[in-house]
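note to self — DONT lose this again. spent like an hour looking for the file last time. sequence + predicted structure for the chain T wanted, 306 res
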Amino acid sequence: MRAATFLLLSFCSAPAAGQGPWTFRSALEARQTGQFEDRRLDESSGVAVSRKYPGLLWTHNDGSRSFLFATDSSGADRGTLAVNVNAEDWEDIALGPCGTETCLYIADTGDNRESRRSVRVHRLREPTPAQAQAGRILPAEVLDIRYPDGPQDVESMWVDPNGDVQLVTKGRGSEIRQFRVAADAWRRRQAMAQPLAAIPIEASRRFDRFVTGAAISPDGSLVALRTYGEIYFFFRGPDGRLELPPSPIACDISGVDIQGEGVGWLDNKRLVLTSERAIRPSGTVSVVRCPLPSAQPAGERAGQDQ
């Protein structure tokens, strides 16, 4: 959700000391590539990179406005779609399999007060650019999700190659945690999320270290979790649980955008970031290349896609 304006100052701060196993490294490349041409995109909270339509990005606003925006790394207006669902707090978006198709998954999982009895993920077949240009209204499937130990504030989601939905809590009031929802839950339209592990990122209000977005690399090997000022890289282990690399790397992206929340992989080396409007007329798009952890030993990855 939209943060206070004091965030503008904190982006200039260096990462906090004592951050456990992480080595903080500057981005190898970082450039703002555009602002959203569509001024309605004032709180871009998540971004998904199309593999079917090269150069196309899907994004959405934070909150209850159930519209999908098609854009690119320049921020061009490439159309808008309405999704025929009742949204409460959209926070992230991801592409993933749904049977033999590719679908957009939208995380209606935001819960600042941690008071929602259940949250939802919406899923629809990836639209075409022509549908976006025509401003179509599209239906979506709805998956109702509960957490075993009560409400959680979640702003980050990705979808594994097998269709499992992975959710990571923001860390607003407690440790950052990962939950899994199995792909077959869509048959029942409801699920109890499975807790997997605590994530070794120290949440910090002072340093704006809340997890606001997630994305899985095109080859399925790495997961990026972003905060307002850093990107943390993990290997994807069995059941999709996040595993620390031998030398964990956090990429410092402070100053790249203001109130940035969205993250997606353009390819296996570069990421795209999207931000809220803050003091600008609309949100921004940036492209970064970060130092990445060395390749995971083959033995450690055995069976993780089974």
